[in-house]
Each structure stands twice: as structure tokens, then as C-alpha cells.
Amino acid sequence: MLPAPEPDRVFDWKKLKWIAQDLNSSYPATIVVNPGTPCEAFLPTEPPHSWAWARHAKQSDGPSDTAALRTLRMGGPLEGPVAHGLACGAHLIVHQGRFWNAMAYHGHGYRADRRTLRTWWGITSRQEWQSLQRALLATDGARPVWEFALGLRRAIARDAGGHVETGHWWDVAASVLQRRKGATTSAAEIDADIKDVQHLIGRIIRYEARMRADGILREGQYVTSADAWDLGRASCMARWGVSTRYCDLPEAEAAVVEAGYRAAHCYGSWEDFSAGFILGRCLQFDKDEFGTWYQEMVTVHRILTSDPGSPWLNIPFR
Length: 318
Hints:
Layout: H1 16-21, E1 30-33, E2 41-44, H2 50-57, H3 81-87, H4 90-95, H5 110-121, H6 126-137, H7 144-160, H8 166-181, H9 187-213, H10 227-243, H11 249-266, H12 270-285, H13 292-306, H14 311-314
Antiparallel strand pairs: 1-2
Helix pairs in contact: 3-11, 6-10, 8-9, 9-12, 10-11, 10-12, 12-13
């Protein structure tokens, strides 16, 4: 049992075998489990008691990062704006096998989560966390060139009644770029920009085709925006801010609610949101390999769209 996060107390975890193998004389001879609660217990760690820890260590490896839907039935919201915002971050949380609705998040522990934010995000201070959290919530385009390409297709689809030919999409992109940049950019730079956008369009089409084959998109459906990639991570970043003490619970909760609000403004359903998140993740990391960056999210998508306890099946998207 973990109490609510406090500014001056943080959390870490060790596997049971650490107690059995690595505990030395400098550590206390007794570990207190659930202190101050009705199930408080004092467990000895010194020999001959250490053999019991070793026996239990063989039966459990501790927290696992295997994808699984886990829900707090007490202490976590199950409905309402906070639950909705937390469900927007479910891709990564379910992928790690953590509780999707844990607002008082402890993650992998204080030190591990701080190390992750430093390594993957360059965050080493509260100010840097705040700046990145604001950027993720901005919904001004996960990547401007992604939203440029996807926005063009939305506009073409409105004019064409839905279906958009790839060649026409390419041609319109080239025409718009030439018109926008012709007066201020060299012909060589414009040609390079056109090739980049047309290459991106090809990537989007290939990922969407694969997502249709895997049941993430319906036949004829396409991704309208990749903003879900930022909004889903914004929901997670709020929780990571709690576990690393870069923010407090009220601040994290406000960010989670904002992520949910913006997601509902951008998308029409959990399935649409999920497809946008997966496309964004793959455009950033997968390099057209359809490898683990893609496959992991297919697994999570199927869990969240089929498990009876999934927030996506129990919380209205709008």
C-alpha cells in the first residue's frame, strides 16, 4: 500500500531477491510493511529469516512491463473528466502493465522515472517539465509537416466527397508548397520540401493500409490528425511529473483533464484517437519497419477495444 504522493517523500521498489541476496549489515534487521495502516507488519530480514525471502523471490519477479489492462477499483477514478483524460494516456500505461487510472502515480519509482525523463525527454527540472507539458497540450501540430499533409487530405476529402487518390494528394501538396514558398524560397529548396512531403504521404498511406489489415482502421477510413500522439503523452507526462515530483497532484490532474478535453475536440471516438496516436508514434520512431514501435501499439489497441473492463468501452469519448 502506497500513500498519496507528498513533496518530501518519494517511492522506489526492489525485487524480493534484493532482500534475500543483497541486504547487508548496514541495513535494518526488520522491514516494516504498510506502516501506519491496519495491515502493518514487521518482517525480519536477517538469517535465518532470509531464506524465506529467497523462497518467495523465486515465485515472483516483481512488477512486470508486460502489456496488461490493470484498473484501480479503489483510489482511482472510473468515470468523469479525470478518468477520461487518464484513458487518453492508456496506450503507454497499459503497454507497461501499470494502472491506467492511477492519478497518484508511482511508476517505476522516483529514481528510475527521473532517469527516464532525463534520457528520453531531456527533463531535469520542474521548469523543463512545465515547458514540455505545455507543448504537448498545445495541439498546434504534433509535427507541423505531419499536420500539413493530413490537413491537406482532409480538405481534399471534403471537396471530393471522401475518397482521395494518392497522386492527387501529391499534386495538391506540391502546388500548395510552390504557392506558399515561391516568393521567398529557392527552386531547389522547394523541390526538396515537395519530395519530403510526398515521401511522408507515402509513409502515411502504408501505415494506414497496415492498420486496416490489423483492424485498427475500418475499410476506407483514414487518420485525420496525429495530435493524439502528443495528447496521449501529455496525459502520461502529467503522471510522470507526479512520480518524479516535478509537479503535484492538482497540477497533474488539471493537465490530464486538459488532455482529455483537447482529444475530444480533435477526434470523434476512442478508435479514431488510437489510430492517430499509433500513426504519430510510428512516424517518429518506426522507420517503415512495422517493428516493435508498431506491434506494441497493435497489442495495446486490441486490449483497450476488447477487454470488458477497458475505459474505452466504459467511458464516453465525448
